[in-house]
Amino acid sequence: MNERHTYRVIVRGTWEGLTEDARARLLAEAGEHGMASMRFTEEGSLSYEPAPLKHFSMRYVVVSDAADGEEMAGAIAEDRAEGALRGLGYGFGDLKSTVTDLDTMKINRKSRSRR
Fold first, then answer.
1. In b/e form, how buried is each residue of 11-25, taking b as 16+ CB within 10 angstroms?
2. Whether this model's pTM surpasses 0.90
3. Strands across the sheet with 4-15, in order?
4. Which of 82, 81, 62, 59 is CA-nearest to residue 72?
5. 3-class secondary structure per residue, 4-60
6. N-term to C-term CA, the chain
7. Rounded Cα distance, 82 and 65, in Å
8. List of the chain residues with pLDDT < 70
9. What is the C-alpha to C-alpha distance for residues 97 and 86, in angstroms, rounded to an integer?
């Protein structure tokens, strides 16, 4: 069985070609998609600022084969983001992802002797 890794992926993009209805929905729901809503989930969490309504980010947790690496995790998250945004009827473009492999991340802990 292949080793699995857990990745945190931030997909960033720009709003493009929003309809008036989509723009109105985004502005009405902006309070639900601010800094406090930023969480890494399998379904993704959308965050954006209403003024100017230009950029957004989506945060994902992706679990995949370690051999596929960070590039595949980024592609999976971008695919999820595209599907979610299309499903909501939001126009978007210029998706870019930043990936962190939680299984290889080094954690520096302060030793108790340094108090």
1. bebebeebeeebeee
2. no
3. 45-48, 55-65, 4-15, 92-101
4. 62
5. EEEEEEEEEEEECCCCHHHHHHHHHCHHHHCHHHCCCECCCEEEECCCCCCEEEEEE
6. 44
7. 22
8. 1, 107-109, 111-115
9. 18
